Amino acid sequence: MATYTLPELPYDYAALEPHISGKIMELHHDKHHNTYVTGANTALEKLEAAREAGDLGTINQFQRDLQFNLGGHINHSIFWKTLSPEGGGEPEGELAEAIKDSFRSFDNFVKQFTAVATGIQGSGWSVLAYETISGKLVTFQLYDQANHIPAGVYPLLMLDMWEHAFYLDYLNVKADYVKAFWNIVNWQYVAERLETAKQVTLVK
Length: 204
Ligand code: MN
Description:
It is a single chain. This protein is 50% helix and 11% strand. It contains 7 helices and 3 strands, in the order ααααβββααα.
């Protein structure tokens, strides 16, 4: 039995239209995400086979394969749930307070996250995360599926900026894709992730 499995989308493929088309969601979930799941399971098998054979020469390559594919699996699993046909608007409660405390205002946060997203050079993600030492919220650019992740962070909101995520709908106009994203953010789920993040202790 496979270690990693493809989760179901929590809504129909076309549920996020007109912001993200059903065609993109179907390809993105069934093909792209599934490929990361398969790749992560394959990497685990190859690591075990390399250990069994005592072949350390292949260990680093398979670790990188696992890191990349598991990154893809985790990032997409979070991404689907941070989107909702009933999303949009602004966060409330503790999440709203945390955003205000860390970015001065919700509008400033939207501007910063948008700049992070549209400024990615190549393939990657724009991320809002909880920094577990300071308790502050931070944004960062995650490259490919697992590169340049700062130490000590727990992701709260992630936007896929790979071309496969938007090109069929928006061609090269990244700014319109990011603008549409704000209409479908599931702030309730992001708030639940913040609650969980606050329980994480990396350094005591
Ligand atoms: Mn993707």
